């Protein structure tokens, strides 16, 4: 009952403010009599004109305020209202009183009937405080519903831009500003008047008339058992069916309660997509147009029965209540935050005052400390003069001791540095000897590879010369054997070509081996140079270690194809000389 009273008060508030011509919050008694009579008529409440006169008997001269009319409105009208009146007729009566005064004169894309429906939707979605406004969250919810009903896509960025340009001095829109917003087509660009009107009507049916679902289906009669097309309208506790969608010729109702149920039926008697609605005293067989529609209707009726069992309101009303509770919670949290901020500010000011008092105390303490410091410095000067002689004597003794310690430390450091240098020299000498040994091994490997390549090259050249001589002899044979020899010559030329390619490959390998030999030679020279330099260093440090020197190098033999490798005799001679030098050292 409280919720119904709040809904009625919103529409009555519009009518009352429309009668308030000079915006003073007061309406004449004659106008209130007319308003009260009209309200009693549409709300089906017995009208008592004497009660109005009695209520204002002490104030029958001039206008009365809204606060003075509210007690009468609550006592003699709203408390007597039952849920048996036509809500649309009630809203239309209040709309008639306020539309001419408030509706914008600018041309709109919607009709006055559509504007009336938007006005009723505004009363449903507005906040429960006066003057009535609809907050941005509810505006977004309504515009989304309209866009969805028009089959368009919701433009979130456009709405965010609209919210940025919102007047900061108010928290929402009035009913007439909302009508103008929807009527100017700002959020329905590209849609014609009929589409917008149909969308408003669909949202109106859902939010105001509690229409959960509607559409054409076939219904089987109870007496004649014939099938007739009807327009079905599903509401929270009833399914009404009409001849057509204009709702003028109502044919019957299916009363829903928690004991009802809905079941799917198999196809029969030439009818498809059948389902059954079972109630306490009757059963209704219905045929949908397709399987999708059938499933949607079964699901909608089942959800409605489930809500009846739970005693829950329709989904859109429950969602509206949740949104309001969420906003109240957010407002309470914001107020709590502001209260905490104020407390913190007060606490901060108190702390500032305490800090100021502490600062003054610290300044006084600093002043006293300065005086004490002055006295202490004076005493310190006297003590410094007394002990200056003793301090000079102690400094002289300490200086002598430091010089002795420094001398000993220097000697020890020199000794340790010499030991570290010898150790480093020994390690580097070992690395140099290892490099020399590795270089000799690389030189021996390259020399053997070069000798093998030269032998292969010589054999290939001898074979090539032999083939060439055989070819010359074959050319000088008789003319009768010329054809046969020509064939042999072609074969030998092919073999010669292959031999030339092998020779080129051997030449390339020989060059690579020569390059490797040069690299090994450079490494050996570098190792020899390192060995000689380290030998000089060791000799400089009292000759603790003797370096192993490499043997002398003889000039290389040169062939027509480049430097030749060492022979076995030369290698043995070099090894013998190296061993002799090592023995003498």
From TrEMBL:
Cite the GO molecular-function annotations of the record: ATP binding; calcium ion binding; DNA binding
Q: Where in the cell is it found?
A: Cell membrane; Cell projection, Lamellipodium; Cytoplasm; Nucleus
Under PROSITE patterns, the record lists:
EF_HAND_2, PH_DOMAIN
Ranges annotated as spanning the membrane: none
Q: Name one GO biological process term.
A: negative regulation of actin filament depolymerization
Q: Which domain of life is it from?
A: Eukaryota
**One cellular component term from this protein's GO annotations in UniProt:** actin cytoskeleton
Kindly state the subunit structure of this protein: The SWAP complex consists of NPM1, NCL, PARP1 and SWAP70.
Primary role: Phosphatidylinositol 3,4,5-trisphosphate-dependent guanine nucleotide exchange factor (GEF) which, independently of RAS, transduces signals from tyrosine kinase receptors to RAC. It also mediates signaling of membrane ruffling. Regulates the actin cytoskeleton as an effector or adapter protein in response to agonist stimulated phosphatidylinositol (3,4)-bisphosphate production and cell protrusion.
Q: Name it.
A: Switch-associated protein 70
Species name: Papio anubis (Olive baboon)
- Per the record, the gene is SWAP70
């Amino acid at each position: 009952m409280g919720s119904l009273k709040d809904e009625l008060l919103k529409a009555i508030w519009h009518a009352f403010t429309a009668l308030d011509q000079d915006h003073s919050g007061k309406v004449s008694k004659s106008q209130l009599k007319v308003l009260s009579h009209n309200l009693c008529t549409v709300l089906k409440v017995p009208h008592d004109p004497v009660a109005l006169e009695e209520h204002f008997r002490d104030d029958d001269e001039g206008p009365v305020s809204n606060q003075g009319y509210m007690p009468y409105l609550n006592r003699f009208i709203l408390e007597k209202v039952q849920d048996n009146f036509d809500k649309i007729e009630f809203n239309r009566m209040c709309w008639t009183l306020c539309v001419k005064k408030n509706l914008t004169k600018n041309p709109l894309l919607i009709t006055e009937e559509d504007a009336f429906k938007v006005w009723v939707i505004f009363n449903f979605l507005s906040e429960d405080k006066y003057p009535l406004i609809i907050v941005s969250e509810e505006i977004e919810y309504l515009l989304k519903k309209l866009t969805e009903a028009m089959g368009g896509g919701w433009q979130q960025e456009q709405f965010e831009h609209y919210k940025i340009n919102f007047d900061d001095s108010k928290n929402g829109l009035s009913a007439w500003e909302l009508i103008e917003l929807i009527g100017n087509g700002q959020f329905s660009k590209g849609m014609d008047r009929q589409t917008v009107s149909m969308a408003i009507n669909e949202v109106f049916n859902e939010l105001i008339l509690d229409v959960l679902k509607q559409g054409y289906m076939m219904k089987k009669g109870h007496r004649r058992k014939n099938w007739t097309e009807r327009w079905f309208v599903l509401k929270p506790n009833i399914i009404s069916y009409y001849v057509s969608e204009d709702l003028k010729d109502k044919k019957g109702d299916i009363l829903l309660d928690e004991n009802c149920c809905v079941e799917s039926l198999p196809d029969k008697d030439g009818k498809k997509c059948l389902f059954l609605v079972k109630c306490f005293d009757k059963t209704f067989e219905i045929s949908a147009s397709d399987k999708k529609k059938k499933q949607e209707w079964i699901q909608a009726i089942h959800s409605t029965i489930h809500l009846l069992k739970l005693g829950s309101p329709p989904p859109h009303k429950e969602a509206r209540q949740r949104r309001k509770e969420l906003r109240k919670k957010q407002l309470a949290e914001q107020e709590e935050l502001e209260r905490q901020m104020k407390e913190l500010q007060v606490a901060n000011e108190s702390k500032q005052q305490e800090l100021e008092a502490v600062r003054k105390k610290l300044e006084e303490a600093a002043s006293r400390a300065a005086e004490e410091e002055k006295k202490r410095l004076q005493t310190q000067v006297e003590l410094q003069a007394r002990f200056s002689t003793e301090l000079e004597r102690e400094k002289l003794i300490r200086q002598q001791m430091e010089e002795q310690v420094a001398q000993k430390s220097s000697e020890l450091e020199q000794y340790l540095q010499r030991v570290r240098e010898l150790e480093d020299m020994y390690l580097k000498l070992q690395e140099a000897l290892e490099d020399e040994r590795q270089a000799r091994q690389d030189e021996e490997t390259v020399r053997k590879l070069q000798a093998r390549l030269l032998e292969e090259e010589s054999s290939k050249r001898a074979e090539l010369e032999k083939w060439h001589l055989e070819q010359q002899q074959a050319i000088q044979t008789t003319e009768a054997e010329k054809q046969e020899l020509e064939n042999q010559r072609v074969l030998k030329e092919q073999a010669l070509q292959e031999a030339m390619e092998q020779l080129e490959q051997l030449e390339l390998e020989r060059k690579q081996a020569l390059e490797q030999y040069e690299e090994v030679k450079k490494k050996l020279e570098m190792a020899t140079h390192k060995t000689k330099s380290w030998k000089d260093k060791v000799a400089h440090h009292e000759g603790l270690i003797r370096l192993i020197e490499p043997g002398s190098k003889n000039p290389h033999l040169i062939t027509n194809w480049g430097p030749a490798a060492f022979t076995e005799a030369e290698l043995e001679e070099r090894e013998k000389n190296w061993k002799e030098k090592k023995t003498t050292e």
